[in-house]
Amino acid sequence: IETTLRPPPAVRALIAQSRSRIRMRENLARHWGGKFDAQLGFDSNANSGLLDKNIAVTFQGGKLEIPIDSAYAARPDTFRHVTLQSNYQNMLGGEQFFWNANAVSHHFTNEHKFSSFDFSSNASLVHKTKALNFGAAISLEHFVLGKQSLLNNRNFSVFFEKNWDDCQANLAFEHEWRRYLTTPILDGDTIWKNLAFSCAAQTRWGALQNTAVFRYGTDRPLRLRPGGVATRRELIVKSAWRSQRALRIELSLHLAQANDAEGYSPLLENNAARDVFRRGYQVQMQIPTSDRWSLQVNWSHNASLSNLALFRQRGSSFSLGLQKQF
Q1: What would the pLDDT profile of 196-215 be if each residue is shown by its tens digit?
Q2: How many C-beta atoms surround the C-beta of residue 216 within 10 A?
Q3: Alpha carbons 104 and 85: distance in angstroms, whole number
Q4: pLDDT tens digits, one per residue of 311-326
Q5: Dihedrals phi, psi of 17, to nearest 5 degrees
Q6: Rounded to two decimals, what is the model's pTM?
Q7: CB atoms < 10 A from the CB of 293, how many?
Q8: Are 275 and 305 in contact (CB under 8 A)?
């Protein structure tokens, strides 16, 4: 899950709602919206294989270099990716109400154990005042890997917004409940502090919208999880440009740092505490073919760096598909 560096549902909803509120302001005439896209692509590391060919194991005060079985090496594969998204916005009891749901299927041709299905839904209510907007949001996620339910994720957050001109700042406090259905030892609760900033501008070359989200969280395990308490930091930056002819290009950067408070394993680097730094890049282009249909091209690259060889990974993917807005 973490290898792909996909922002969690709460963050995806935060970005989507920030963009939506900047566009619409008081205009809630269009209540329903959504999209469907289908893509074919190639992934250089479909099985989330390890980057190193050997792993150093601590043994009797020394280190042994043990070759990693080829089954754990990166394997390429082709995939089919389908996304269905629905959004709803309206006034509810005098407050702004937002809801969205996402269903994502990612199916590999050969690496079936790593095919996945992800369903998530988010709802939020916003109260507007002259000085500040504030509200609450809840999100749910269910993740299936290789036809087996793997994770249930719940998030509850309260947030505060400040709007001016075509910009918006957002401060959110979020509680994440993460429950693994097959490996409950990994269960944990994370308290996040989120700071987001989004701005839109109209230039002679087209419309530009930039969004940045910084997150800081303390991840506390419910059981004796390897590594114990973890400190997490994330930075997500998105920049989207839309030409007057509706050509759209979006650039994304996702950086994530995780530091464990305790040693991960006596067999790895003398029970060193795990440090993991993940970075992901994505370029997405949408070329309209009609009012509602567009050709979509995606490229992404993800890398995981760590002081423990067990968590060093790297991979890239490319896909081509069609998207329909409704």
Answers
A1: 999 999 888 889 999 999 99
A2: 14
A3: 9
A4: 999 999 999 999 999 8
A5: -70, -35
A6: 0.87
A7: 11
A8: no
